[in-house]
User: What shape does this take?
Amino acid sequence: MTLRSWSYLGSVGGNACLNLNIPPDRDGLLDARDAARLMELRRLIDQEFANPLAVTVEQQKDGYPTQPVYQITLAQPVSKVKYVELQEEIEKGQRIETFRIEAVFHEGKNYPLFQGTTVGNRKICVITDPFAEQNRLLDGSGDKTDKLLVKVTAARGEVSLKQIVVYGE
Assistant: This one.
């Protein structure tokens, strides 16, 4: 089992709760098989999210408050980004409706990596190569990037992101 194919990314990573539906027995204990599966899930989560990359996040000054652009500068260039985790300041409300993540390469070209909808409390964007069978954008081509852009394309009000975390291999 991989975390990418499991419901964790679709629920927790999609701004929702994950209901494990694991009831205790009459003695108030979890079944040993359920406990083993929970430990397996913990190992998968720890493995996938063990390596947050060192980044600097800056909101670009120009633009509208409802369509901000965040530039993420990585401390070291990478050839593979696995996840980008976004979190809104939820106490101010869920405002982002649509957004896009792009990689910026040294020759000045931007490549789209992810396009999504609401962010809310937590959105884990799984970065995959849409042309994996035809053209490796970030995996195997040897190209490296040290900048990502998060572009909010529509929002209900002024956007306030609390955190952006980037995970690589």
Q: What stands out?
A: Residues 55-168 form a domain with the Jelly Rolls fold (CATH 2.60.120.260). The mean pLDDT is 86. The beta strands are 55-59, 69-78, 81-88, 96-104, 110-116, 123-126, 145-155, 161-168.
